[in-house]
Specification:
The complex is a heterotrimer of chains A (about 120), B (about 375) and C (about 170). Chain B is mainly α and about 375 residues long. Chain B contains 15 helices and four strands. With about 170 residues, chain C is mostly helical. Classes of the chains: A mainly alpha (about 120), B mainly alpha (about 375), C mainly alpha (about 170).
């Protein structure tokens, strides 16, 4: 089965070579005439007064956290889906219980307003 | 060596077609189609000695322009990460083609030709895994640029991408259940057949015999077996690609260009390229999962080869069938690209809260319901059989 | 050396190096998180060479693709600077870390020789999603169901922790 991975290795190598070749050619061909004003971070001509490195909204953290949890749920469903007919009713009820608990979690998150932006 | 050569050839073919031909041409199609839809003329200026070929020289001009522009890195940026981000965005987009079959499995005497670069056991999961790595390209780009707009754009991009990753996975679980596989080549083979439209009436014993209705068949394509899955998956992958109507990370009107604001020259070019390569990836993926892959409706591989063999012999018949299948696959890919362009230039951009609501409050419950209904139907059909 | 063995040692070394890079990079937390992504991907390659195909897929999907994203978000969310930690406390955490690491290493060195199985032929579908799935959904039903409660607890915990800031 490992022989099948040859293709994945080859295509990744080709993609890497392609991307770095484009960047490399650009580095060689592109001009370089930099001065202080050009190097400033772009803010439509204004001098930046606030550093971008500040704390940002906790909503992004909640989304990321929910993403992990539901991603793990989804991951459990992939092999289950591909084995569905083999597992039959037993597998169906098994997954129904599993999802029911997490659907409860989704309902809780929804009620608490954590999905509001 | 005998393993490596066919793999390299297949890799060069798919990258040549998808990245070398399709991606540049659809940058032109994008401009031309928007022009048609907005009653403009569109790209037609680039020429070599006065010959414009309908503006098809524009992609070439774009490449030359991007390569010869200055590479500006803003002050205070993290130079290594700034350089790395476009590579992280572009490489996964290209590498996704590894598991997408652009043709079936053909038998030439003793040798088997399988027209897919890497026929992995976990097929579609490879695409999901690769797509999840691409998220870092946008996060790092925004963070490394030392620019407020970039950071805001990359936050929007990453939150949107990870949210839709969940529903993207859940919306194809129904397909896994119908075809009983994760492997894209197996899905292609399964879709190279037909089912009787009213077969279920006979199956459940509702009627004795279907008569002439029994001859009415449809190809067993994913789109017909999982219509809701098709719509949801298309929505999710388009949101993953961050193109309009899901282009909030770029949001020209409020955050200028989002995460790649501080990118110029070929570094920007890689982001731009990966966006269009992903359009091709999406089209190819949708074709392989939902539009029957390389198969020709109502004409299975056995039928085609069986039909031509008496005239030309088995070897030529198989080769002809292979060419026919590859052409069919790319025709379907072109249709899916056209559909994406149509959607991109038709729908306006929603607000960010609407995008997130659509994902968490509509798609997530809907995809779970889709899995439930699919499971029930499959079990009922199985139960009636035994 | 066969190709899988080459990949095993190459990416095993990459995993160690990138893990060290993550731990030692205290100045730039985002770069440290990216080193962790490299570690996760290297581990996935190691799993593939050991024929654990589904585990490799999940390693990338869940660890490299999801968990490190949350790390990255938290790092960017809090945006801690080096001086946020008092030097005295830093010494304490470092000391505790060293003790813990030595303890784990000791236990590991003691357990590994006993736990190493003898090399045997593996079935042809070893590590495929079908083989892992059958075991998981047939033989380990209870642990599988309990996982859902674990995830539920995590969902509630995340919301409760963040809710105070939301309101």
């Amino acid at each position: 089965m490992l022989a099948e991975y040859t293709g994945a290795v080859v295509i990744l190598a080709v993609a890497l070579v392609l991307a770095s070749a484009l960047l490399g050619i650009h580095l060689l061909v592109g001009p370089r005439r930099s001065f202080a004003e050009k190097d400033e971070p772009f803010e439509c001509g204004e001098r930046p007064i606030v550093s971008p490195h500040q704390r940002f909204s906790v909503k992004f953290y909640i989304v990321a956290m929910l993403f992990i949890l539901f991603d793990v749920e989804a991951v459990f469903m992939y092999p289950w889906g591909a084995l569905f007919t083999e597992l039959g009713w037993f597998g169906f009820v098994e997954m129904l219980t599993f999802v029911a608990v997490l659907a409860g979690g989704l309902a809780y998150v929804w009620m608490k307003g954590a999905l509001e932006w | 060596m005998e393993v490596l050569l066919p793999v390299v050839l297949k890799t060069l073919f798919i990258i040549g077609v998808a990245v070398g031909a399709f991606a540049p041409v659809i940058t032109w199609i994008e401009r031309k189609q928007s022009a048609v839809m907005q009653d403009r003329i569109g790209a037609n200026r680039a020429d070599i000695a006065g010959i414009t070929v309908l503006g098809l020289l524009h992609p070439l001009a774009d490449v030359i322009k991007l390569l010869t522009k200055e590479d500006v890195v803003p002050a205070g940026a993290n130079r290594v990460m700034h350089m790395l981000a476009p590579v992280i965005a572009a490489v996964p987009a290209i590498a996704s083609f590894a598991v997408i079959p652009y043709g079936g499995i053909y038998q030439f005497g003793d040798t088997t030709v399988n027209l897919v670069v890497a026929d992995l056991d976990w097929g579609l999961l490879y695409v999901f895994a690769i797509a999840s790595i691409a998220t870092y390209g946008t996060v790092i780009a925004g963070w490394a640029s030392n620019n407020n707009w970039s950071l805001l754009g990359s936050l929007r991009a990453s939150a949107q991408m990870i949210s839709y990753e969940v529903t993207m996975g859940l919306s194809v679980v129904g397909v896994f259940m119908v075809f009983q596989t994760l492997r894209l080549t197996d899905m292609g083979v399964a879709q190279d057949s037909t089912f009787r439209i009213f077969g279920f009436l006979e199956h459940f014993g509702l009627v004795e015999s279907l008569g002439f209705l029994g001859h009415l068949t449809l190809p067993s394509w994913g789109i017909l077996l999982q219509p809701l899955g098709f719509i949801m998956f298309l929505t999710c992958v388009m949101a993953e690609n961050k193109r309009a109507p899901f282009d909030l990370p770029e949001g020209e009107s409020e955050i200028i260009a989002g995460y790649f604001l501080e990118y110029s020259g070929m570094r920007f070019g890689l982001f731009y390229m990966s966006e269009f390569i992903e359009v091709v990836v999406i089209a190819a993926l949708m074709t392989a999962i939902f539009l029957g892959g390389w198969s020709i409706p109502w004409l299975s591989q056995a039928d085609i080869i069986g039909g031509i063999t008496p005239v030309f012999g088995a070897g030529v018949a198989t080769a002809l069938c292979m060419v026919l299948h590859v052409v069919t696959f790319f025709v379907k890919v072109i249709v899916m690209i056209w559909l994406q362009m149509q959607i991109r230039w038709t729908l306006p951009r929603p607000r960010y809260d609407q995008v997130m609501d659509l994902c968490w409050k509509v798609m997530l419950p809907l995809s779970l319901a889709n899995i439930l209904v699919t499971g029930l139907v499959i079990l009922l059909i199985q139960g009636a059989k035994s | 050396m066969s190709a899988p063995a080459v990949f095993f040692y190459l990416f095993g070394a990459a995993a160690v190096v990138s893990a060290l890079a993550m731990v030692l990079n205290v100045r730039n937390t985002v770069a440290a998180a990216m080193s962790l992504v490299v570690t996760m991907i290297s581990l996935a390659v190691v799993y593939v060479t050991l024929e654990a195909h589904l585990v490799a897929a999940l390693q990338i999907l869940v660890y490299a693709g999801a968990i490190v994203v949350v790390f990255l978000f938290v790092v960017m969310l809090l945006n801690l600077r080096r001086d946020t930690f008092a030097p005295s406390r830093q010494l304490l955490t470092k000391g505790a870390g060293v003790v813990l690491a030595l303890g784990v290493a000791g236990a590991f060195l003691q357990l590994v020789p006993q736990a190493l199985p003898t090399v045997q032929e593996i079935p042809p579908d070893f590590g495929s999603y079908a083989a892992v799935g059958r075991t998981l959904y047939r033989d380990f039903v209870l642990p599988f169901e309990v996982t859902s409660f674990l995830l539920l607890a995590a969902i509630v915990g995340a919301v409760v922790l963040a809710k105070r800031r939301l309101d």
